[in-house]
Design a protein that fits this description.
Length: about 180
């Protein structure tokens, strides 16, 4: 009787340097980009990851992150560094992780004036446009009508749907989609 073979994936090495996270130039990193659209492909053949993508992949056991001195960073170190550069990091990460676990591709949306853009399941960036712009908020935070209207205008002007992602103290996420209607 033959034994089933299991292939253990090689962890991708990444470098965390000056708020940039770059993968090694390898087939594994390019495969991660091609199949799952993690990161952005650079001219050098590396993948530049967001802080959220890198932490998610670390938690999934897909990559090791090294600092500038080539010392391996623990997940706690990455969270600490990320919280320094992005105060709302844990709220945003809860939404990123939840969306990815649900099978959506989620990317930053800074050029749209939003936190994230989310693609429908099965759609990869470049094949079609994102369906939603997403704003993560903590359940205890407040949003003025002016802020809400501004977020709604951004979604409308980019031809995307507005989604508010409300994160509670246990990092559970509830989604609220906002649509325009004509009475």
């Amino acid at each position: 009787m033959s034994q089933p073979t299991t292939t253990k994936r090689k962890k991708i090495k990444t470098m965390f340097s000056q708020h940039k996270i770059l993968t090694e130039n390898s087939n594994e990193s390019r495969e991660l980009y091609e199949q799952n659209r993690f990161g952005t492909l650079t001219e050098e053949g590396q993948i530049q990851l967001s802080l959220h993508e890198a932490l998610y992949l670390m938690e999934k056991g897909r990559l090791d992150m090294l600092d500038g001195k080539k010392k391996k960073l623990a997940i706690g170190d990455v969270i600490k560094k990320s919280k320094k550069s992005e105060p709302n990091f844990l709220i945003r990460y809860a939404v990123f992780k939840d969306m990815r676990n649900r099978g959506y591709i989620i990317k930053t949306a800074l050029k749209f004036g939003a936190d994230f853009r989310v693609y429908d399941r099965g759609v990869k960036p470049g094949e079609d446009h994102a369906r939603w712009v997403v704003y993560p908020v903590h359940e205890g935070s407040t949003l003025t009508w002016y802020e809400f209207a501004a977020k709604n205008r951004v979604a409308h002007s980019t031809k995307k749907r507005l989604m508010l992602a409300v994160v509670d103290d246990e990092s559970d996420v509830t989604y609220w989609e906002v649509k325009w209607i004509r009475p």
